[in-house]
Amino acid sequence: MEDLQGAAKALMRLQDVYALQVGSLTRGRFQRAARGDPVDIYRPAVSVPLSGDDCFLVGKVAYELGDFYHSVPWLEESVRLFRGSGGAWRPENQGTLEDALDHLAFSHFKEGNVSYALSLSQELLHRDPMNGRVLQNVEKYETLLVQSTSLPVSQGVGMRRPNSTALRTRNTYERLCQTRGSQPKHYENQRLFCDYFTNGDPVLLLQPIRREVQSLQPYVVLYHNFITDKEAEDIKTLSQQGLRRSVVASGEKQETADYRISKSAWLKDSASVLMGQMDRRIARLTGLNVRTPYGEYLQVVNYGIGGHYEPHFDHATSASSPVFKLKTGNRVATFMIYLSSVEAGGSTAFIYANFSVPVVKNAALFWWNLHRNGRGDEDTLHAGCPVLVGDKWVANKWIHEHGQEFRRRCALDPEE
Ligand SMILES: O=C(O)CCC(=O)C(=O)O
Ligand SMILES: [Fe+2]
After folding, report:
1. Could you tell me the CATH superfamily of domain 2-147?
2. What's the gap in Å between 237 CA and the centre of ligand 2?
């Protein structure tokens, strides 16, 4: 049941974040509503249509959560598809046309569309004349309509998306996820640049890395070809058996949460010689001390379709956070490696800084989470957008304050 609910919620998440039309999804297409014709935002090689029963299952999950904003379009599709198949029941089906009509009528009633609830209930009663409960509903809806004849009731009245905790940042988040890589171009911000970066390091002098500065405040850079295809595959393989549902900090504890859907595993230094190699490569590039316990173990993360990580900070924002268990201070920086590409979706979005980075296989994204004075940099609020198609893998190396005293020094200005 939890798996079914998770899958249904994931579909509704994709529907919301990418403004997808449910009618298109049921035909196996990924389309956004636009003025005029719907626009394809991804073209799958094969389109797999959904059945009336598939749509019923999704709609019912929303219905049972009291989320009628989502139950309506899914149950509409379910009713349409069940009607199209003549309402015949198939043994593999969980629901029937009657079930779908019943749930859809009540959803419309809850959304304030009494006249539509009535006509659906009448259709249902026609198919199931002995159903006393539906008969009662028909009478109730008729009475309500007589009482409120002066009030015009139009379809779609009150159709508001249910509140989410991240409501304040939701519009920006969704806009950044929808635009594939919306970082400002160098001609929009003259101070952004690309270069061959060596950090004055002998190894990097022989083989500089392509650096793309994404943002200056906060400082976010992308290092291309940080790892090879082979290394990426090896890291994924090493993590396979340790993958578990990802958790988030909740007070002093860690627990699963709807706002972070993925699997993750920690790779200890002893997992492979690769871990030491990664640490040394990160240290060369960042100039930071990333040895345990100044750097955490590498965290490998796998997102499936609908997997995401809503806007959050990597650094601790409360003294009780598990981040402090290492006793090496807060997470001063994040070094995140993209171990895979993704067909659609999955960008990394910086909400307040107003840009997003598309997944670039084998590249690594680096940013400072803290100001030089140790305070958290609010501009680093970021998210992993839901994966629309494909499978996304990243690896995080979180670097702590301690061990960097002479590597990232405080500034003369205590506010800096
Ligand atoms: O998946 C992403 O793009 C971001 C992941 C992230 O922010 C995290 O794991 O803390
Ligand atoms: Fe993060």
Report:
1. Tetratricopeptide repeat domain (1.25.40.10)
2. 22
